[in-house]
Every structure is written in C-alpha cells, then in structure tokens.
C-alpha cells in the first residue's frame, strides 16, 4: 500500500488537543514520506449537543472503511440520553459492537523517567499487557438488561465458547510475539476470573485451560480477580499477559494505569479481524480542556501501537519501524529530557511535549 487511511475522531474535551499532538508526531516520524492519509470525522457529546446525533452515519462508514481509527476522548458529564446513559460513550461502545472489536489490548508499562506510586517499581519492573475481552461478558448486557416494575434490575453476563476461545488464543499469540517483559523465564499468560463463585467465569477458565494446552511453550496460570488487585500492587513484575472478561478488564486496566503514572500514560488498542481502533485510556477531562496542559503521551503511544498493528497486518516494515521510533522518542522525552506533564509530576504543556518528541524523531529519521 502507498498510503493507509486513518480516520481521526477528535471527540470531546482534551480530545482535539491530544489528537493534534499525535498527528504532528506521526508526521515527524515519517518526514517527507508520510504513508498515512488522515481524514477527520465528528462524534461525541459535543456533536450530540449541536446536532442531536452522537455518532453520525458518515462517521461510522468512514471508521468502517478506514485502515485504522484514531480517537481523542469522549464525553461531557451530564450530556445524556433520555434513558440516563451518557451520549459521549456511544462512539466507543457502538464501534466495539458493530466492528466486532473483540480484543482490547492495554499495555501497562512503566516508562523510564516516570515515577510509580508503588514502592517497589524499578525501571522495567512493570511491563505487562491486559487483554480485555471486549465483545461480551457483563458489557454484553448493554441495552439488553431489564428493570422490573422499578424494583429489580438485571444485567446478564454472557460468555460464549467462541468468544472465550478467540480472546484466549489472542492472548497466547501475543505472549509469543511481544517485545519486552520476562527476562530469563518463560512467557506467561494469566487467566483472571472469579471461577470459584460464578458459572460464567468457571466456563471462561475451563475454555482457557483447553486453549492453554495448545501452547506448551507458554506458562499458564489462574488468579481470582480480587487477589489480582492485590498482586498488581505487590508484585507487578510477575505479570506478562493477563486475559480477562470485559468488566474485570475495564477495572484492572485503570488500576494498572494508576501504577505507571495514571490514565494519561496508558494507551489502548481495540482490535477485530478487520478493524483497529486506537486511543488513550483516559477520558475527556473537560476541566482542563483548552488550557494546553493535557498529557498527550497516552494517545501518542496508542498511535505507535496503531503503526505496529498496521505494519504487521500489511507486512510493511516502514510502519513497524516508525512505531518503534515513536516509542524511543517518548523515552527520550520522558527520561533524557524529563518533559513531564502535570499529571505525572511535571510542568510541561502538550506543545512542549510534542516538540521534544518530534525533535527526537527528526534526529533519527
Ligand atoms: C474504557 C472506558 C469505557 C468502558 C467507557 C467509555 C464506555 O471506561 O474504555 O475503559 O467502560 O469500557
Ligand atoms: Mn474503563
């Protein structure tokens, strides 16, 4: 391919700022020979306020046909549908289900130069990936739950064999292929569930075990979700790849992010067989929007994931290489130059961070 189509949706709050920063970094990573074509489409709570539509049809079509989707952030508190659900969430949740983005990949990596609130967090000590099942689990109940006579509410938790098999295979393949993590020990996939109490999680675990048997080169283990919250604080260096149900993945990925500098440092990739959707894990932070102080690192790291995913998919080493160089320049900015935004204990604004990363990239183009 000569150029890959990237559908860019800025969204709400700090979304436009972190997207602008990321587009500049992508341009700097390739110099003159940019193999990406950006097109911008609206969605989100602001767009809903203006037009009554949070996710226009044309935006969906553009996302569907693009090679990848890059998103800023979504949501404005209090901008809701009549049923009380947040209008800003429509974009992400609808994309997940309509494009069947079943694998939500959330790397939890402590970058050199960033301080962790954990006592025992030497550089390199936190470097694992949460693979969140993104198409079923408790989230499958969205729009399908029921409220009986205003007395009882029910949301079913659905786990299918097909859904579990594909996410567990995804996790084992990722463990085989990913850079970083364990030194001097075998690759490991941890199944995180609540198999001791609920049937759906026991089924998740039993299908996990069947799939794990097909990967004898990789260590497989189980841990219960409640214990997991303790382990991710006390021994994060133990983990390599963690696979878990949708809701549990939602929760522990925020917990993990808190150990590596917060949501602003945490990228997220939502992948299906045909589409990839990339954003930072943070929300739209309306309180700091427009002030130039938003942390763009998470979105920039998500863009690096996007390049890596596109590069592998299309066997295009230019993209894989550019993704690696962006990561290297992020490390340069954080560790060598100490350019830290407020949320990670510094004073740098989005523009300064972007410029330092771009300068790091230009030196290496
Ligand atoms: C996330 C977010 C979403 C979720 C919201 C925005 C619907 O918290 O991506 O983790 O709950 O999955
Ligand atoms: Mn979440």
Automatic annotation (TrEMBL):
Residues 5-357 form the Isopropylmalate dehydrogenase-like domain. It is an enzyme of class 1 (oxidoreductase). Its cofactor is Mg(2+); Mn(2+). It comes from the Bacteria. The keyword Zinc does not apply. GO terms for molecular function: 3-isopropylmalate dehydrogenase activity; magnesium ion binding; NAD binding. Pfam families: Iso_dh. Its EC number is 1.1.1.85. Keywords: Amino-acid biosynthesis, Branched-chain amino acid biosynthesis, Leucine biosynthesis, Magnesium, Manganese, Metal-binding, NAD, Oxidoreductase. The keyword NAD applies. GO terms for biological process: L-leucine biosynthetic process. Homodimer. Belongs to the isocitrate and isopropylmalate dehydrogenases family. LeuB type 1 subfamily. This is 3-isopropylmalate dehydrogenase. It comes from Bradyrhizobium lablabi. The lineage of its organism: Bacteria, Pseudomonadati, Pseudomonadota, Alphaproteobacteria, Hyphomicrobiales.
């Amino acid at each position: 391919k000569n150029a890959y189509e990237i559908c860019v949706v800025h969204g709400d709050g700090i979304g436009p700022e972190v997207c602008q920063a990321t587009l500049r970094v992508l341009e700097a990573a390739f110099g003159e020979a940019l193999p990406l074509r950006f097109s911008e489409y609206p969605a989100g709570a602001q767009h809903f306020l203006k037009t009554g539509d949070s996710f226009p049809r044309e935006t969906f079509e553009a996302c569907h046909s693009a090679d990848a989707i890059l998103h800023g952030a979504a949501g404005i508190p209090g901008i809701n549908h009549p049923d009380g659900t947040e209008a800003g969430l429509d974009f992400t949740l609808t994309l997940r289900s309509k494009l069947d983005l079943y694998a939500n990949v959330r790397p939890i990596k402590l970058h050199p130069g960033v301080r962790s609130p954990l006592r025992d967090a030497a550089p390199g000590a936190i470097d694992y990936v949460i693979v969140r099942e993104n198409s079923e689990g408790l989230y499958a109940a969205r729009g399908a739950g029921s409220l009986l006579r205003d007395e009882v509410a029910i949301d079913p938790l659905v786990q299918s064999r097909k859904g579990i098999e594909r996410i567990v295979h995804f996790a084992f393949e990722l463990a085989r292929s990913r850079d970083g993590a364990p030194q001097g020990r075998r690759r490991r996939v941890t199944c995180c569930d609540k198999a001791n109490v609920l049937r759906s999680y026991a089924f998740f675990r039993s299908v996990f075990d069947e799939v794990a048997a097909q990967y004898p080169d990789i260590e497989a283990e189980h841990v219960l979700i409640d214990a997991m919250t303790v382990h991710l604080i006390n021994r994060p260096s133990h983990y390599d790849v963690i696979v878990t149900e949708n809701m549990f993945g939602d929760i522990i990925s925020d917990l993990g992010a808190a150990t590596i500098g917060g949501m602003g440092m945490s990228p997220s990739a939502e992948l299906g067989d045909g589409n990839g959707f990339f954003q930072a894990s943070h929300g739209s932070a309306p309180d700091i929007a427009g002030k130039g102080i938003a942390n763009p690192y998470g979105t920039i790291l998500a863009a690096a994931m996007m390049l890596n995913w596109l590069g592998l998919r299309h066997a295009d080493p230019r993209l894989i290489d550019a993704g690696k160089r962006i990561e290297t320049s992020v490390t340069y900015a954080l560790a060598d130059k100490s350019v830290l935004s407020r949320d990670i204990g510094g004073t740098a604004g989005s523009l300064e961070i972007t410029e330092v990363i771009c300068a790091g990239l230009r030196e290496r183009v």
